[in-house]
Amino acid sequence: MLHSSSRASSSYSQQPNVQSRGPILNPHSSEFRPSSSSSSSTHSTSQPNTTNQNLSSNVSSSLTMNFKGLPKVQIEKILGEGRSKEGQGAIKTYNSVAWNVSGRKLASCAANITGERLTEPLLQIWSADVWKPELDIKKNVQTSLQLVWDPTDECVFATAHNRGVTIWDVRLKDGKGWEIKDKRCETPTNPINIAWSPDGRYIACGVKEDAVTFVDPRVPALSAAASAFLGSKRLDKEVNELTWSPTGDILLVTTGMGSVEVFKWYWEKFDAVPLKSIPAHNATIFSVKYDPTGKMFAVGSVDSLASIWDSSEYICLKTVGSQVYPIRSVSFSHDSSLLALGSEEPQLEIYHVDSGEKVHTISTDISINSIAWSPKQNVLAYCGSEYIRPVIDETEKKDYRDKNNFNLKFFLLDQVKL
Fold first, then answer.
1. pLDDT attached to residue 271
2. Can you tell me the distance from the alpha carbon of 292 to that of 285, in angstroms, rounded to the nearest whole number?
3. Which of 226, 237, 293, 348 is least crowded, fewest Cβ atoms below 10 Å from its Cβ?
4. Contact 261/253 with Cβ under 8 angstroms?
């Protein structure tokens, strides 16, 4: 059973309904799009432009195309025509990026650096249409290592920081500006990694004290009658990234011992029961992600390798990776056909899941902290910090640092000719 206080236990039966946050905005409505240009284009369909329609259709198909069943040579050709785009308004150091459930918005958490001095932490909300921030959030922001969106609400996300978890509700206000609502869920431990359950009811936190804690984001802020902290599960080993299965009945937790701890989640009992311990790698595992179908998951390790596992039998299907430095982040494409790996090296690798063969390499100038494929399109967001090239010749005085480099970027297939 989870270790929790009596106050937390008694509050469990009194949780407000998840719908109390307010209506979910339609991602295709004009209300969800603050850009006047996109709004005007919506009403200009009475005189269609054939050329623009053909171009739009081509771009749409290349962004959403399915790679399943395509031969390796064709996939390599298509990915080779992709392009990398620097996020407009990006800053120096990013810790995490994540897409919302509709794929229309991207959130990032960063540490704003001016020269050699760290200034205020920063959260940014990006538009997938124009690839630049629509909103910079500086008020009440703690330095965050990871963020995650609510799977049931396009406008709600959470960040983990040294005081607990903060829930952010970002919505349009009168079509002119943004209304920001934040709520803090303080925990008795310091969360580093967080994962939101598919039904939106719970957040699991990997904490420094070698445990997993659970938070209920539905508890009203500053509630005197209920606590958002629900309990914890101690592992007695370093806890790193964790993730829920798409069905919500399995929680995977990666560790500093190279294992993946599998927990069976019982909703009616509110209990995480150990199911299996998988000795996946011989070194620390940093990252774990399910593919969108839930049939497999991938983990990335310090040993510079990533492994792909069957999620029902827990059998290793493939091991991929040709990098030298630790794999910091892994991510599946929206059709589960591609797996991207981000490491401390200044490059990303993309693998064909069915064959296990590498189909593309993205050269970059940053050390990767986080990567995320869009849940709807062939767009890969990646972020990190400035890559400092190792000094081989001590007499070489060249400064490799790019003072104008901004470290959130996108790999797009929006100009591929099909």
1. 81
2. 21
3. 293
4. yes
User: Nearest 5 degrees, angle CA 233-CA 148-CA 198?
Assistant: 70
What's 3's DSSP letter? Answer: B
**Residue 408 and residue 386 in contact, taking contact as beta carbons nearer than 8 Å:** no
pLDDT for residue 144? 79
CA angle 101, 103, 108 (to 5 degrees): 90
- Can you read off the two tokens belonging to residue 327? 């794999």
The DSSP annotation for 120-147 comes to EEEEEEEETTTSSEEEEE-TTPPP-SEE
pTM of the model: 0.80
| 20 secondary structure, DSSP code | G
Low pLDDT (below 70) residues in the chain? 1-60, 111-121, 140, 172-189, 220-227, 387-406, 417-418
Number of H helices, E strands in the chain: 4, 28
Q: What pLDDT sits at residue 119?
A: 57
Which helix (H) or strand (E) element contains residue 49? none
Rounded Cα distance, 58 and 68, in Å: 19
* Residue 358, C-beta contacts closer than 8 angstroms, at least 6 positions apart: 320, 322, 349, 350, 351, 352
For 145, the token pair is: 């290592």
* Token pair for 355: 């064959």
Angstrom distance (rounded) from CA 296 to CA 356: 14
Q: Of 110, 151, 55, 102, give the one whose Cα is nearest residue 377.
A: 102
Return the residue matching tokens 């790019």: 402
